[in-house]
Amino acid sequence: MAAELVEAMNMVKSFRVSELQMLLALMGRSKSGLKQDLVGRALRLVQKEHSPELLLHGADYLNGLAKPAAPTAADVKLAPLPFYQTLETLLPPTELVAQNTEKLQDCQCSFELTPSQVEQIRNCRELRPSLKSIQVVLRICYTDTSSIQEDQYPPNIAVKVNQIYCHVPVRSGTEPLVTTPPINRGVEPRRPCRPVNITPWMHLSTATNRITVTWGNFGKRYCVSLYLVRVFTAADLFTRLKHYSVESAERCRERIQDKLRFDPESEITTTGLCVSLNCPLVKMRLGVPCRALTCAHLQCFDAVFFLQMNEKKPTWTCPVCDKPAPFELLTIDGLLSEILPQTEDVEEIEFLADGSWRLIPEEKDRERSSSPQCTLLDISVVEANGHSPAHSGSSQSGATAPPAAAPAVVVDLTEDTLSEEEEGGGRAGDTDTETDDSQDCPPPKKGRCRYDKDLVTAY
């Protein structure tokens, strides 16, 4: 009995604060105070009461056998991820339980791979150097059974696999978390929450893999789970999208007709809808027009850029209306796919009420077409009767070409005054000019303004 007492006292002295608190609470004693107070309280129990239960539990704590196992949150459902296909569940959702009142908490779990699972990982293809297509991933989410849960990291998250800190996708997704970051008052980090790939730090054998999760305990409940998954790339998802989710051109025309259908109760009648042929994500021309089936707009975004963006940062949000656009609801617009090759130099088209479409010219073309068109006359050409085309009665049909026998005469605009014959000819054609040319452009001036040569010097 004396030997057991000495062994129990030595065990108590080696306990951590959390273990001492759990031991004292189990024996119905207060667990508040500093570590030296907790140790003294536990030693008095051993020395004075000699409780066999205390000795038994003390031995169990030393061997790590009596630590309460974290409860299994079996009813927690995690959202499926387009870039991951779950092959097997290695650890079902298990709640992270705080062992004490400290802000930073640790939770340990372990798992073993079967020989077939080891072979799957070893023989799979590589997405890129040192990144396998078959992985063991760790997922963390809220412990909430009321709805399907998205991945959500707790504050100050750190994951250690076999005593080595692994890479947690923080910010750009490549920085290793080698130390526990400072506590930021329980604020959840703003970063893309995705599964943590722990494959590079695992034993690729049937040996036991031990995982330690460190997190900030600020009142919210989290659970952790492990899965063997197959990882897809954006190119893989694009291939699947092309094969299984293309909306036909006829169905797209019906959608347009439904949107532009006449509504007698509406005060405003819409006769057409303009659609840009540029992707709102990258401001470049659409390659593969795509949108979500739940979106009410006809505007599309580029499927390749959208998948690549969500591979880097999974938001799955429509760039046009900011509503959810999950992968399973994406579809390729068959009508716009037919229109794009026919409109290489056009950035915008208009869909009409009958499902047809027309080109919308660029801004310069619209300005040019809306400006008034005036007849261009060559004032350096004089007709046979000495009149200029601007003063000819035949100017209704445009500029009149001089007869072949009449030589071209250049009018010198530097003369101060016109000859009497030219002035007379100009007066003779005034009436016709006012009646014929006034509809298209203003009549030409009848003469030059006289000025005093002494006041103006020509250089």
UniProtKB/TrEMBL annotation:
Annotated region described as Disordered, given as residue ranges: 385-459
SAP domain ranges (all copies): 12-46
One GO MF term: SUMO ligase activity
Keywords: Metal-binding, Nucleus, Transferase, Ubl conjugation pathway, Zinc, Zinc-finger
Domain PINIT per the UniProt entry, residue ranges: 64-232
Biased composition range(s): Low complexity: 401-411
Localization annotation: Nucleus
Ranges of compositional bias, category Basic and acidic residues: 449-459
Matching InterPro entries: PINIT (IPR023321), PINIT_sf (IPR038654), SAP_dom (IPR003034), SAP_dom_sf (IPR036361), Znf_MIZ (IPR004181), Znf_RING/FYVE/PHD (IPR013083)
GO CC terms in record: chromatin; nucleus
Pfam families: PINIT, zf-MIZ
Pathways per UniProt: Protein modification; protein sumoylation
Bias (Acidic residues): 413-423
Domain SP-RING-type, residue spans: 264-345
Zinc-finger recorded as keyword: yes
One GO BP annotation of this record: regulation of transcription by RNA polymerase II
Similarity remark: Belongs to the PIAS family.
Protein name per its UniProtKB record: E3 SUMO-protein ligase PIAS4
Source organism: Conger conger (Conger eel)
